[in-house]
Amino acid sequence: MRHIKIAFWGLLVLLSILWLAAEPSVFQPESFMALRGAMVQYSGVIAMGVMSVAMVLALRPRWPERWFGGLDKMYRLHKWLGIAALVVSVVHWLWSQAPKWAVGWGWLERPVRGERPAVENPVEAFFMSLRGSAEGLGEWAFYAAVLLIALALIKYFPYRLFYKTHRLLAVAYLVLVFHAVVLTEFSYWTSPIGVVMALLLVAGTYAAAIVLLRRVGASRKVQGRIASLHYYPGVRALETEIEVPHGWPGHKPGQFAFATSDSSEGAHPYTIASDWNDKDRRITFVTKELGDHTSRLREKLHIGQDVKIEGPYGCFDFDNGQPRQIWVGGGIGIMPFIAGMKHIALERHAKPDRPSLAIDLFHATADYDEIAIAKLKADAEAANIRLHVLVDTRDGLLTGDRIRAEVPEWHAASIWFCGPTGLGEALRKDFAAHGLPVEERFHQELFAMR
């Protein structure tokens, strides 16, 4: 989370400082209308800046993933930038429109405009000729972007519709790029803020084109085929084993991938619940019935069906140098730890003399399936991991106190959590209050892609 905050606030501060360097007169405006003009420019710079970075992150780029701590963290930043773009765009629109309303209502006097000096620069003159079109198109693109961002933030909006409508933001963004290029103060383009904005707009335009061409993650996509299906009724979860004979580069335990079994539904992210064996070349997903799509998978999937897999993604790989670890999997959040146990078991078999990590795994669940829990226990035994299964109705809720009671040396451990956001935040705050340096040693998978 720390790097997300650094990137988010760092971008806002950088754009603000560069804009102030280009517009120092904002501190002593000649009139309200002069202030209004400056605020329209400032809010436009911020809105287009954050929207451009959000567009680039939509491509799921490889290069910043390790610094952010995984694609899940990059998507959280993408969401923050989208919310910032929504808020600042509304402010931009209000600065543009509200003074006009005030003049119409008689609250402000219409400013007296003298004759504008002739524009000698041919590029500036060309931009001036496009102002009317840029204002009109930009306003409609603003309305569309506000609607589409709002829909993306509504969790109850079906994913299959979100998948289709969210792509339209790329179209709105391209129109807003035209709006920004034409209406940005012309003198800015020869200043540092202009150079930075030009780079951001070019990068965002490239990203929007890739999105519209449906080429996001194209180099990471492989064709797979369903080899087996197994349903666990007690936990309402479906285990799907997929053959990926060609192209899959392998993955680390704890990583995830996007799977597409229905092109109309789009790609869904799932944690990979298996270790990688280059000879067998299979990966396993376990999906819990949590929504419309996952509830229908049992009826829609069949052995032999083709599935597109994109990945691997994520840095939830249990690698931080701490020999003592505590794993916490809430509900379906147990999946990365299953892959981790299978990987450790293979390592123990291949190198029996190698010292192993001391790990306690806590699995808190509201549902119970004897077969699933038996397989979980077998994986834990093979990996020499202490397993603690807590069923909510039988054992009560998992708390920091219960973990510390079971693991007295918790203060020397790193904690890896995957599961419900509320439980993760509660445990993080609890361990922080007890002195654990959570920024370095509490790792939480933010598995919410919207």
Automatic annotation (TrEMBL):
Q: Keywords, A to Z? A: 2Fe-2S, FAD, Flavoprotein, Iron, Iron-sulfur, Membrane, Metal-binding, Oxidoreductase, Transmembrane, Transmembrane helix
- State where it is primarily located: membrane
Report any Pfam family annotated for this entry.
Ferric_reduct
Cofactor(s) recorded for this entry are: FAD
Q: How does it sit in the membrane?
A: Multi-pass membrane protein
The record's GO CC annotations read: membrane
InterPro entries referenced in this protein's UniProt entry, alphabetically = FAD-bd_8 (IPR013112), FAD-bd_FR_type (IPR017927), Fe3_Rdtase_TM_dom (IPR013130), FNR_nucleotide-bd (IPR039261), MRET (IPR050415), Riboflavin_synthase-like_b-brl (IPR017938)
Molecular function per GO: 2 iron, 2 sulfur cluster binding; flavin adenine dinucleotide binding; metal ion binding; oxidoreductase activity
Query: Where are the bilayer-spanning segments?
Result: 38-59, 80-98, 140-157, 169-189, 195-213
Q: Cellular location of this protein?
A: Membrane
The keyword Membrane is assigned to this record = yes
**Domain FAD-binding FR-type: where?**
203-319
Alphabetical list of PANTHER family matching this protein: 1,2-PHENYLACETYL-COA EPOXIDASE, SUBUNIT E, NADH OXIDOREDUCTASE HCR
Q: What is this protein called?
A: Predicted ferric reductase
